[in-house]
Amino acid sequence: MRYAETGYNLEIDLTRGNIEKVETDPRDTELYLGGLGTNAKIIWDRVPPETDAFAPENVLIFSAGLLCGTPATSANRTIVTSISPQTKLFQYSMMGGFWAPELKLAGYDKVIMRGKAPNLVYIWINNDKVEIRDASHLQGKGAVETQELIKKELNEPKAQVSAIGLAGENRVFFASIEQARSSCSRGGLGAVMGSKNVKAIAVRGTKDLYLAKPVELMGLMNEVLEYTKWRNDNPIPNYMPILAGLGSPQEMKHDDEKWHTESFSWGNSRARRRGFWTKEIAEDWKETMATMQNRTISCFNCPNNCGATLTPPGKPTYMMKCFTKLTYTMAAYSDLAFGLSIAQMATEYGIDGYSGPQVMAFALELLEAGILTQADFPGMPEDNDGKFYWLLDKIVRREGIGDILADGTYWAAERIGKGADAFAHNNIRKHEQLPLKLGTMDPIYYLLYCCNEKATVTQIEGNFPQAPFATQEEKDAFVSDWFQCPSGRIKEVVQKWSFKGEFAGPYYPTPEMCSEIVDWQERMHYVDDCVGMCAGMSSFPLKPPYHLFNYPKIISAASGIEMDTDDLVKTTTRVRNLVRANNIIRGLRRVDEAPPEDHWNKRFPELEKELLDTYYKYKGWNNDGVPTKEFLHELGLDYVAEEFEKRGIYSETPSYELAAQKEKEV
Amino acid sequence: MGKRIIKTIKIDANKCNGCRACEVICAAFHATPKYSSVNPARSRIQMMRDPMRDIYVPVYAGELAKAECMGRNVYIMDGREYDECGFCRQPCPSRDLFKEPDSKLPLKCDMCEDDPPQKEPLCVQWCLADALIYEEREVEEDDTVPSNDMEMSIKALVDTYGLDNVVATMARMSEKG
User: Fold this and answer.
1) A-B interface: how many C-beta pairs under 8 angstroms?
2) Residues whose CB is less than 8 angstroms from the CB of residue A613 and which lie 6 or more positions away in sequence, other chains included
3) Does A293 contact chain B (CB < 8 Å)?
4) What residues of chain A score a pLDDT lower than 50?
């Protein structure tokens, strides 16, 4: 008997059209939990590092987290994992919505796809009946539209459908996978799905999912719900309102955008606009949101209403959450009405709301700089908003300049040449970042940006405050009921940390303290990504309902796997290092671990070196960022160490020395 | 005169965020043993949910209807067209709703009868959006005098079969329980 998980994966060979239901080893769940953890094991076992993202041999996994479908509030995430066409690294992108719980109820933990279908298909999973169906009539259809069309043709209004749009079909490197109000956006996994000729996966499940210690689990969940209610009524005082509550940042509810519009950068992540947020704009944008928004909505079994259904004038309804609200507006120096309208099209086409707008702004900068010319933009309208619509269309169709831009700023700059790379300035590991340009280097964020396998800071930051509190009273008050915090040392940092003086950045917190803080923040994400918990109830906000002390009990009650906090720490450390191992064999080294060069105006090279040195040591990695043989042995990952040895990774010249030699030669 | 508690769940459909927590907890509560499994298809509350049309209607399972209705209803409110039978709470031969997915036996909301009693039905407790609101009210009932309807019906039986036959039948039925 398996609890919380079903114990079965669906293995689909798209080339041959073969479908198998395969029982999984319960020992793997104990070692890697599920979701991201077991996905990382499958990619390690089956996808050699030489495999191209679009090769049929690449594997694309749609996984439910271990707790998805159980009564665990907000456990609804689908963890999609494969190799990214953009970064060429291990990529995991996650979405909330309703798909993962439905998969569990159909009797599966994962759908593992390999090969390539001979023509465009969609997969229909209806409990034990699984079909690969022709999707030629869905070619070119929008990602949202496709979900509706499939439910209709199956006559299954309760089916949940994950789908790609035109961008995925055309292998745009930042194509998304859309489902309900959520999407897997980062790293271009929609393009991998397109490369396999899979338009959508529909699932309907009406089976039972079993719980190991049900009464215990209910007691724990009642505590989570009680605390959630309390926490919703008590936002963190003296903290930016958008980050003071639970859930993902409540962009659909908050109309005050002073913080985003004045602290984040406009255009191709270039300029901050201080004083932008006037009374007139505040009223105008509030009116825009009120006119277009139908309702705020939640994902499966979640009380947080982070998303909304929106209907821009004259356009179909779509769903949105979080900061995509502003990324198009700010990239185009336009207004909210434009941003919400173009986002409707972009969602149907299925592109990442972070990378997409930045790529378009990048193209227009290149035009302005004379690196690209008018001849590259035939027929582009004169008006600013029109230019963005035009670019969006060209990119998702891979037409003309759009074909180059569809690879993202890094690869586009490489193909364009003529110094275009200076304009692809906001990337980590070839991947576009949030449009943020700040003053003095922040040591915690330095590590969060550098050492994050996903190259997306929102997916690794969270439980520790983003900035110091102003007064001692505020600091003491904050730590007084901070039971989620696993260490007295971290509490002490908050009590001392200040804007000025001895305990101010960048030298405080010290590299040792930063290591501990970053390790904890990151760990919370790894737990969430294994169990399928929404970060908005756990790793992302301050003082969340799920934490290192109730998680082991919840996982244990749901799955029957006995564990305490130490066990959970060890398991997530194992997963974290296996994920890293997947990147190490793909060539990731210390030189790749850097924030965008212009992210901070004031840099501290010596301190930054010390930060990385200290953090690597703390993590059990050598000075080039490779997990050591001894540490891997401790984690039971000897097979990783053996592979590293076989590939000569331990004996190679460190990447930073190679980089230094290269610099000397120049 | 007797007293009876009427249990009511008020549904504020405008507050519903469509998360289906109500279905999850209902299915878990009614599992055997209690809470041992989850399967929203067994839930006695079902979300009629279509975000693209802004339709969010939680519906509770009611009494089994042995036959389909002769006619059907489609409601249009505020320009939104709700599905056929969208508001109906009866398990019936026309659809799979409110039936056990394997045995197809009908389901019915029992307001989470429990020992000791729950303070509120579980769906209400788990709806943090406050779309489900529980209310109890006491009504007084005149339980001493048989209703005119019943008297008329029995009189019709007596007219047809004779008083002795009706009394004997009633006695036999009450012996059987």
Assistant:
1) 98
2) A511, A623
3) no
4) none
How far is A30 from chain B, CA to nearest CA, in Å? 21
What pLDDT sits at residue B136? 94
Contact predicate A385/A332, CB 8 Å: yes
Considering CB atoms only, which of A207, A214, A309 is closest to B51? A309
Position B153 scores a pLDDT of: 85
Contacting residues for A662 by C-beta, under 8 A, at least 6 apart: none
- Give backbone dihedrals phi and psi of A590, rounded to 5 degrees, phi first: -50, -40
Of B19, B25, B52, Cβ closest to residue A148: B52
Question: Is residue A388 located within the same domain as residue A529?
Answer: no
**Over residues B15-20, mean pLDDT:** 97
A645 shares a domain with A539: yes
Q: How confident is the model at residue B176 (pLDDT cuts 50, 70, 90)?
A: confident
C-alpha span between A208 and A125 (Å, rounded) = 16
Contact A336, A288 (CB under 8 A): yes
CB A164 within 8 A of CB A143: yes
Q: Is the pLDDT reported for residue B87 higher than 80?
A: yes
How many structural domains are present in chain A?
A: 3
A296: nearest CA partner in chain B = B17
| B145: pLDDT strictly greater than 70 | no
Tell me: do A156 and A19 sit in the same domain: yes
Say if residue B76 is in the same domain as residue B32: yes
Indicate whether B155 and B118 sit together in one domain. no
Closest CA to B72 of B85, B62, B83, B86: B85
pLDDT band at B177 (very low <50, low <70, confident <90, very high): low
Domain span at B130:
2-141
Phi, psi of B151 (to 5 degrees): -55, -45
Residue B51 with chain A: CB contacts under 8 Å: 180-181, 295, 297, 309, 317, 319
* Residue in A closest to B54 by C-alpha: A294
Residues B89 and B156 in one domain: no
Domain final residue, candidates A430, A464, A480 = A430
The set of long-range contacts for A271-275, using a CB threshold of 8 Å and a minimum separation of 24, is: A272/A437
What pLDDT, on the 0 to 100 scale, is given for residue A395? Answer: 98
Alpha-carbon distance A480 to nearest alpha carbon in chain B (angstroms): 27
pLDDT score of B147: 66
At A435-488, the pLDDT tens digits run 999 999 999 999 999 999 999 999 999 999 999 999 999 999 999 999 999 999
Residue B134: pLDDT band (50, 70, 90) is: very high
In this structure, what is the dihedral angle of CA atoms B143, B149, B150, B151, given to the nearest 10 degrees?
A: 100
CATH assignment at residue A417:
1.10.569.10
Positive/negative CA dihedral, A158, A159, A160, A162: negative
A109: closest CA of chain B, how far (Å): 15
Range of the domain at A657: 441-665
The tokens 């599920």 sit on which residue? A34
